[in-house]
Amino acid sequence: MAANPDLPVEPVEPVASVSPDVWIRAAVLVGLLAAVFGPMWVWAVGIWRESEYYGHSFLLVPVSAYLAWRLWRSRPLPAGVHWPGLVLIGGGLLLHFAARALNVWFPSGFAFVAVLAGLVWWLFGTSTLRHFWFPIAFLAFAVPLERFLVLKFAQPMQLVATTYATSFTAAMGLPVKQVGTTVVMPDYTFEVAIPCSGLKSSIAMSALAALLAFVLEGALWARLVVFAMGIPIALVANGFRIILTLVLARAIAPSAAEGFSHMLAGLVVFAIALGGLLTVARSLGCKALRADI
Q: Three-state DSSP class for 19?
């Protein structure tokens, strides 16, 4: 049947396709990537299994892979080999081998992210890297920095959390006194240990805030505010947990506070922090999910 020349012809959208030779190069490079960075990921998974700060990292890699899969449907046309990507690959490899020479693991995690971004840039072009930048960069939140963060921030955060909880509960009329990182009441003493400092929740909430800032629709500045509010909201939620523990100890019994602290503390912190983040997002106009996610 012949086409009617009087009917308008709708333009056909180009389909993003990748030539077989690019896939072959990509497969070879992925194998090399696994050989070079495999030991680093073995180290990272070992930390995830043992650390109370990075147990959530088991979820980050699947989330990154899921986002990449969802974005694949709307990927741009590949722009061919883009040689500047080799600079990023070379820089990442240099960082990795320098870290291994110094027997330090965590820089290799960031080097992996850089090399992966460089490979995408080199093989598929700038527009493709721009399209997939977040699933790649999100992997950086899975790199364990526990030793560095605990040494640098844990003690100051303990003191701040203790002072905040003591001041707030004193304003409520509770007979409390601060001794270093310990809150003392007539019949109960609560030590704000490193896990109670807010560092654990801050690490997890920074990743969650980044994810929300990416998947929500809204102005760029508003989504940046959502991301920036992740850690402050986590600290406030952690302070509320300490206050609630002290109130339970005073109002009911120390045993009630201990049971609450160990069983429900993480859930309370997460629920408050997530609710706070969503409230901030909605107040800034970020109410709907992106159409391409």
A: coil
